[in-house]
Amino acid sequence: MKLKLYHKIIIGLVAGFFAGILLGDKAEYLKPIGDIFIRCLRLIVVPLILSTLVTGVTSAGDPKKIGSLGIKTVTYFIVTTFFAVVIGLVVANGFQPGAGLALGEVSEIARPDKVSPMQMIVNMVPLNPAEALAKGNVLQIIIFALLFGGALSLAGDKGKPVADFFAALAEVMFKLSDIVIRMAPYGVFALIAWTSGKFGLAILMPMGKLIVATLIASTLHVLIVYTGAVKFLARVSPIHYFKKVFEPALVGLSTCSAAAAFPFTMRAQKQLGVPERVSGFTLPMALTINMDGTALYQAVGAVFVANIYGVDLTIAQQATIVMTAVLASIGTASIPGGGLIMLTLVLESVGLPLEGIAIVAGIDRILDMFRTTTNIFGDNSSGLVVAALEKDLDREIASTPLSDMEIEEV
């Protein structure tokens, strides 16, 4: 029997974990294989985002339709992110992940340059689109693609050749994605082997409460918020949803990058019955704006740091954490470790020592697995919900079990 791709990924993940435990530090030699896999995925992400978002805007046609998509999409992102932070705080306050952890000597960490909220908004607009593309600045690429796609729509027939070019480029990038993701089982094996070889089982014990608290909060958010949205807003079976999103979630778990899982997410959207007009619009935005897992982690991380320094957070401080985490998660680059940078802003907002980040940094890779997986479940739910609200969801495909679908093997 021919194994499906997600079966191969599971095998690679499990085999990689045990290989890392057995090899220990020698698992470092496997890491280049995983690095090549991530590089290949990043190779296609920028042109894929640009082409799909421009195509999504132009295919929407009516500017009012584009506005409707944008309002529904951004509203969904903000609401789910708010719930993510609240759930993170509730779990962390109940779990007290840093309680009982002896504070040892911590290393000094570099403090990032402070940027005002207004300057953050200004920085969203690219000075040079080519520079934004070269640097992979996802937020600036999204702003440019939205403006460019809108201008193409307003140009009418004169803009059609350019719109057709981006539509063709999107198709080419989808084909290239199919080629690249054949490497997934091998890349996952190497990355998981390196992670388990580096951290082993010993590191999990002293930081176990933080890891468990983050895992519990992430799981609750997925099961309560996303399941509720899929069932009651999209009116789709959560079972079908989870089965179809399982593959990109596995890739995100191993790579710690929602951007790396983007091609898999696009394929999952097709299996969920979401038209490209919607997924091409919502998913690129989701990579930067829909960071529920990251926001949730910031709440748990802030309580953890407060615990280890013996600080009791007031209601006002926790409200500040909610606001800061929601805003900070918007614009977080979807790359490994991005949440650690955003945690700096959250800690500063309530006056907690930044040295606490140095303690968390040692296991950030493990925590990043949960954050990214949560983000990917959120990305897929956003496309599904928005498509349903726009009455563009193909319900026949959405209600078809994954096992009954004819899926092109890659």
UniProtKB/TrEMBL annotation:
Predominant subcellular localization, coarse grouping:
membrane
Superkingdom in the source lineage = Bacteria
Any single biological process term in GO: dicarboxylic acid transport
From what organism does this protein derive?
A: Desulfoluna butyratoxydans
Q: What is this protein called?
A: Sodium:dicarboxylate symporter
Record field: transmembrane: 5-24, 36-61, 73-95, 138-156, 183-204, 210-233, 245-265
The compartments listed are:
Cell membrane
Task: Identify the keywords attached in UniProt to this record, alphabetized.
Answer: Cell membrane, Membrane, Symport, Transmembrane, Transmembrane helix, Transport
The protein's matches in InterPro entries, at most eight in alphabetical order, are given as: Na-dicarboxylate_symporter, Na:dicarbo_symporter_sf
Q: SUPFAM superfamilies, alphabetically?
A: Proton glutamate symport protein
Its GO CC terms are: plasma membrane
Recorded topology in the membrane: Multi-pass membrane protein
Its Gene Ontology molecular function terms? symporter activity
